């Protein structure tokens, strides 16, 4: 598939005036692959390519694009083009892109919808974008709990949406009462009431459940979809395996981008000023932390002037602490994401990480101390850097556990901010330990 996307990128760049070749290439790919290809070319060529794409394909492609890419593309369209674009928009698609649309465009899209789709949209927009209620699928098999098996089987013949392996039963008020798996239906007699086949183990997802937790619940259920209900137990829709896979994909992408201080909605060819401003904020934060570390080094200026070897060896101390801390930080961030870390096990986890840090600290302190002794022919300098390594790796282990936990308590993404804070802490701890011991033992 990657080669097909690459081929489409080449087509979009070199054949921008050939609608036939562009649409032929698009017809062989999914909308998300086409969106990826469009996001991979400069803005001017992207707009030319968009103008050559068939109207029937545009909305599906637009929905799959990143938020910033979508905004940049819509910015060049007038109201008539936007009305045409949103002619067949449904509630799920509009909910997907509404955060990247100004209110004026949302109103235009809503006017194109029928009453049922507008109702679905109003139902979903009240939920935050990280909970199931916002993203439920409305294509599901629903039946009254009072029908017979023969009627349910006729329902199956009419339409069976993807990720469907059961019928959801509701009462006269629309409240969910249970589900019946297909295999039970096929085994039953046509005259039997369907209510007698309800699967007692079939669970449901509350609309306020976080997406990642809903994906975990679906995975544990061994089903392809689960019903979603509101506070009154009214059946709103379902959460299926396709939505769960997309949840995990977006979660992983968000974590990868956040480690560099970037947003997963960022466009590859966003305007230079916008990209520079976004990245500049994190460069500024990093600069402040670097100056902070430098300020601590400045406290030992006299020591550095007398023992030049300390300046040569300082990067070794900082590097060892940084690597050790990032290992612990990564482990803790993953544990927080999976809900593995609680107040009850935090003390045991901290103790374990300190023991790991102490063992590694002693091992590598001996190695680095021996190398320093051989290099500078100074036993005391070897002892100084060895002790500093132990102190810094222990501090890295402590910080690697406590920093992400504290950030999580403050509702700050530890994957985004944890590494910056950790690097600052380990740098300062390493420099103070190394230069402080050097001042005491070498002068």
Automatic annotation (TrEMBL):
Cross-referenced Gene3D superfamilies: 1.20.50.50, CBS-domain, SLC41 divalent cation transporters, integral membrane domain
Residue span, Magnesium transporter MgtE intracellular domain: 29-132
Family according to the record: Belongs to the SLC41A transporter family.
InterPro entries noted in UniProt: CBS_dom, CBS_dom_sf, Mg_transptr_MgtE_intracell_dom, SLC41_membr_dom, SLC41_membr_dom_sf
Main location group: membrane
Entry keyword set: Magnesium, Membrane, Transmembrane, Transmembrane helix, Transport
Name under which the protein is recorded: Magnesium transporter
Keyword Magnesium in record: yes
Transmembrane segments: 281-300, 306-333, 354-376, 382-407, 419-442
Lipid bilayer topology: Multi-pass membrane protein
Species for this entry: Marinomonas rhodophyticola
PANTHER family: MAGNESIUM TRANSPORTER MGTE (PTHR41394), SLC41A_MGTE INTEGRAL MEMBRANE DOMAIN-CONTAINING PROTEIN (PTHR41394:SF5)
Coiled-coil portions: none
UniProt subcellular location: Membrane
């Amino acid at each position: 598939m990657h080669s097909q996307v690459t081929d489409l990128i080449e087509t979009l760049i070199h054949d921008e005036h050939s609608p036939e070749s562009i649409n032929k290439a698009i017809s062989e790919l999914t909308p998300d692959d086409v969106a990826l290809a469009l996001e991979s070319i400069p803005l001017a060529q992207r707009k030319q390519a968009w103008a050559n794409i068939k109207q029937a394909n545009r909305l599906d492609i637009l929905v799959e694009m990143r938020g910033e890419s979508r905004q940049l593309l819509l910015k060049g369209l007038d109201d008539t083009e936007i009305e045409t674009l949103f002619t067949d928009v449904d509630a799920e698609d509009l909910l997907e892109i509404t955060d990247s649309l100004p209110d004026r465009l949302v109103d235009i899209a809503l006017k194109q919808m029928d009453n049922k789709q507008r109702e679905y949209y109003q139902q979903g927009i009240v939920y935050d974008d990280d909970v199931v209620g916002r993203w439920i699928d409305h294509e599901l098999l629903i039946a009254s709990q009072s029908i017979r098996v023969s009627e349910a089987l006729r329902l199956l013949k009419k339409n069976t949406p993807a990720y469907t392996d059961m019928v959801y039963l509701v009462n006269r008020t629309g409240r969910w009462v249970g589900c019946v798996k297909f295999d039970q239906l096929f085994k039953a007699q046509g005259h039997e009431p369907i209510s007698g086949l309800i699967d007692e183990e079939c669970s449901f997802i509350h609309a306020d459940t976080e997406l990642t937790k809903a994906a975990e619940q679906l995975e544990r259920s061994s089903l392809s979809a689960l019903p979603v209900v509101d506070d009154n137990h009214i059946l709103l829709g379902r959460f299926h395996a396709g939505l769960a896979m997309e949840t995990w994909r977006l979660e992983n992408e968000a974590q990868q981008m956040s480690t560099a201080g970037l947003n997963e909605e960022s466009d590859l060819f966003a305007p230079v000023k916008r990209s520079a401003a976004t990245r500049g904020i994190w460069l500024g934060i990093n600069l402040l932390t670097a100056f902070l570390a430098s300020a601590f080094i400045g406290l030992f200026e006299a020591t550095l002037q007398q023992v030049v070897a300390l300046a040569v060896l300082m990067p070794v101390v900082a590097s060892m602490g940084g690597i050790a801390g990032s290992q612990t930080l990564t482990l803790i961030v993953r544990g927080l994401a999976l809900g593995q870390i609680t107040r009850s096990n935090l003390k045991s986890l901290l103790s374990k990480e300190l023991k790991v840090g102490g063992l590694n600290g002693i091992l590598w302190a001996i190695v680095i101390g021996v190398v320093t002794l051989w290099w500078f022919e100074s036993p005391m300098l070897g002892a100084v850097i060895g002790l500093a390594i132990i102190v810094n790796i222990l501090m890295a282990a402590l910080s690697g556990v406590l920093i992400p936990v504290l950030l999580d308590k403050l509702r700050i993404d530890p994957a985004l901010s944890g590494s910056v804070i950790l690097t600052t802490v380990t740098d300062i701890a390493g420099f103070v330990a190394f230069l402080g011991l050097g001042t005491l033992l070498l002068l």
